[in-house]
Amino acid sequence: MSSSSMASGTSVSTAYQVHLPLCVLTNNNIADDVQVDVVLDEPTSNSDHNVWTVQVVDVHNNKNTRLWTSPSISSKVPPAVSAKFKKKKGILEVTYTVSHENEKNDDDDDDDDSAAAPTAGAEFELHAEDKNKNQTQIPENRANMDMPHALFRDAPYVRIESAPPPYGRHAVATQDVKVGTEVFSSLPYAAVISDKYADKLCHACFAPLGSTPRLCAGGCAFAAYCSTECAANDAADHKHECTLLAALKAANQAAGSRGLRLFARVLNKRAREPAEAFAAVAALDEGASGSGDEAERARFLGMAGAVNKLVPPASRMDDVAELARLIAKVHNNLHGVSNMRGEQVAHALYPSASFFNHSCWPSCVVGFSGRALRVHCIDPNGVAAGGILSIAYTEVYASEPVRAQNLLEKKGFRCACDRCKSPRDADVSLTAWATGAPVDERREARMREDARNALIHYQRAGGDVDALETCRARTASLLSRLEATFDLHHELCHECRFLLMDLCRDLGRHKDVVRLTRNLASDHDMHLPKYHPTCALTSYREAESCTSLGDKGGSLKAYEGCLSVLKVCYGVDHADVVEVQK
Questions:
Q1: Which candidate, 428, 432, 548, places its Cα nearest to that of 487?
Q2: Residue 228: which H helix or E strand, with range?
Q3: Is 388 within 8 Å of 172 (Cβ atoms)?
Q4: What is the mean pLDDT of residues 370-378?
Q5: How many CB atoms lie within 10 A of CB 218?
Q6: CA neighbours closer than 13 Å in the CB half-sphere of residue 228
Q7: 81 or 392: which carries more pLDDT confidence?
Q8: 3-class SS at 393?
Q9: Alpha-carbon distance 328 to 294, whole Å?
């Protein structure tokens, strides 16, 4: 590995790591005291000021337990080390790390300015980090080993295990987990407010802006904050986003900028922080584009070219193909940050969440508290030690073909969870036709299209009362046709019923809301986990309408039902739980 030519007096800092899978230990072949002796070959380096550290790590079951670390050793060549510790079982790895400072002078122009790494034979894996350029790519196999340990170091309920496909690396319980337990929480690597809520919520903490928001002092006139503190906390992340937004505004293209804003933040953070901070993102899965889907690969390449032209030069990636892979990883692992009301207020990248495998009947659910992602166990029976901690990447109230299509399009994989392999008995009603109704696939396709159009019309109606009433009447008519054609718990009936509930709420038709929420509760009893957030939302809607109708008993009962679910899926300290308790 060679560094680029440096001007006179410039200091180059380079770190090297060499990883040796040392040995597998068992009770039968080694004594209690383990003696490790390691010697590396002399490196070809032009520095006399190398500082070495050596580590011995047990990587068995991805636990990455550090067993021994040497003191810093000043030496031109890798020092021989001898480590002694007690260990009976495990898989050991030895890591040598060297850092040095090279002073380059004009007189050295004729010399080779490479900073070669230690050589130790073909059995070693090597990567180098040029901290001056800060463009290091962490080898995936190293990231696969280190990232779980780093991300879940403070998560007592979670460990990461590896298994053959379809499981791969996945989160399992370290101990018995009871229903309602928060098993993990994490802040995002990068996050942006949704376009719809850009003038309503703080761009740093996602709290309401209040009556006197602090607007960005830069040229974007877009970012807004609830306090001076939030504005200061977001300044570094917003810097390049601000430049991008100012350019888009000048070109009259600022609308719908959420995706670009997110990539501006990701690339800005990648450019300004050490490579180790980016390793968790680099280790994410690309989805369909990484599994040979040429159409997806071409799509992300096109996006990469556009992004590189729009972001500030300091954030750009010279390798467009590598940028396309990064965009695919972000797209494949992005989370919509939603509140109890189902409003998607922001989008954020949580690399740690990728270790929780998908299930169409999950044991856990993701919730959000401000910027923080929180994972709670919702399985009424809990999860036993060693059991898989799973979350849902798609809508659970849906038939297997619909779930499979959504996962393939949005996440790039085909689901092989237990529910998909062995459907629940109740799942038949998700696609069943009404008794006596003739099966007509073309008719079903038309009705699915009608349902999609109804949702689009609702989204476009905004606050226009006449448009909302027209949409409500059409949706009510569609629901009547659906209920006459399919099983009452059919996925299309549920989808249309939910939309009609929202329309009636917006129009103040509270009696209709109460009727629809109670029908939806019957749906959810059949096709949603008991403590799914959607169950809390429908109870909350019922409680609101009962209150408006003066039905105190109905309101109290609905609020209690909502609260019983929220305490499990969000935690007793969540702001929505506190609000409902009030």
A1: 432
A2: helix 228-250
A3: yes
A4: 96
A5: 16
A6: 0
A7: 392
A8: coil
A9: 13
Angle, alpha carbons 331-334-337 (nearest 5°)? 145
Distance, in Å, from the CA atom of 244 to the CA atom of 380, rounded to the nearest integer, reads: 47
Under DSSP, is residue 440 helix (H, G, I), strand (E, B) or coil? Answer: coil
Which position has the token pair 């053959």?
Answer: 164
Q: Tell me, rounded to whole angstroms, the distance of Cα 82 from its chain centroid.
A: 41
Angle at 282 between CA 313 and CA 127, to 5 degrees: 95
Amino acid code (one letter) for 180: G
Cα separation of the two ends of the chain? 63
The answer to whether 173 and 375 are in contact (CB under 8 A) is: no
Pairwise CA distance, residues 541 & 534, whole Å: 11
80: which DSSP letter? P
Tokens of 216: 């960005």
- Say how far apart CA 447 and CA 485 lie, in whole Å: 10
Radius of gyration of the chain from Cα atoms?
28
Band of pLDDT at residue 277, cut at 50, 70 and 90 = confident
Q: What is the secondary structure of 503-563 as a DSSP string?
A: HHHHTT-HHHHHHHHHHHHHHHHHHS-TT-HHHHHHHHHHHHHHHHTT-HHHHHHHHHHHH
Q: Please give the Cα distance from 307 to 513 (Å, whole number).
A: 44
Assess contact for 266 and 328: CB atoms under 8 A. Answer: no
* pLDDT tops 80 at residue 349: yes
Those residues with Cβ within 8 angstroms of residue 275's Cβ, 6 or more apart along the chain or in another chain? 129, 131, 134, 135, 136, 137, 138
Residue type for position 524: H
Instruction: Assign 141 to helix, strand or coil.
Output: helix
Residue type, 127: H
Distance CA 248, CA 446 (A): 39
Neighbours of 209 (CB within 10 A): 20
Weakest-pLDDT range from 91-105, 273-287, 312-326, 534-548: 91-105
Mean pLDDT for the stretch of residues 423-429: 95
What are φ and ψ of residue 544, in 5° steps? -60, -50
- The pLDDT score that the predictor gives to residue 387 is 95
More confident residue, 497 or 123: 497
Tokens of 393: 């990447």
Give the whole-angstrom CA distance, residue 36 versus residue 25. Answer: 12
Q: Which amino acid is at 24?
A: V
In the numeric block, which tokens belong to residue 578? 């506190």
Section 152-171 average pLDDT: 85
Per-residue model confidence as pLDDT tens digits over 127-144 = 222 323 232 233 333 334
- Closest by Cα among 537, 579, 544 to 562: 537
Question: Helices in 422-490 by DSSP H: which ranges?
Answer: 441-461, 465-485
Burial level of 366, CB count in 10 A (0-12/13-18/19+)?
buried
Whole-angstrom Cα distance, residue 295 to residue 342? 32
Structure tokens at 474: 């059409």
